[in-house]
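ok so for the tutorial part 2 we go from a plain amino acid sequence to predicted structure tokens. step 1 is just haveing the sequence, like this:
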Amino acid sequence: MVEWIITPGLTQYRAAEAWMEDRATAIAAGEADECIWLLEHPPLYTAGTSAKTADLTDPDRFEVHQTRRGGQYTYHGPGQRVAYIMLDVGKRGHDVRAFVHSLEAWVIATLDTFNIKGEIRDGRVGVWVTRPEKPPLPDGSPAEDKVAAIGIRLRKWVSFHGLSINVEPDLTHFDGIVPCGITDHGVTSLVDLGLPVTMDDVDVALKRTFEDVFGEVSAECA
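step 2 — the prediction. this is what the tokens look like for a chain of 222 residues:
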């Protein structure tokens, strides 16, 4: 059984981090169910274990939190659906790469419910969309924007941290960092792509497609 928690309003980052670490520890000990926690944060930047100082281009703009998740700098803020994923990766084959691919497949399936074609790219974790309406890159390839980020950590084979999907955040807030260390591609959102999608719409799609990808039974708790 996977418990789903949806928290309204804005959740402070350090409080969320402490909660999910405690939950991951309890899952590993067999004392709690696996959990998907959906929330929003106030505007902030987080630095993963591979973050480079030079990629924080405006360090005074928002709070900056050092984290132990994988990845580089990313932004969280209102209008972005953050999904913290506390799942037992051990019982899913002890394969971290396959687990990340499953998370990418989950996001892609969620986007597909809104007729958005999400794609993955070698060497770039996360989910991307092509932007044929934008000028092509210098090498002639089509422009691409990132719509979802993924960064996890494992403790005793239980995951925490997770993914974020840009629903309707202020995209200018990404300007204070080099998102995920990538300079030649941009960032987009569902609303920026022309879709009048709400956070509730995304939550419904996430839950339905999670069961398709992971084959798990879920229980919801607001």
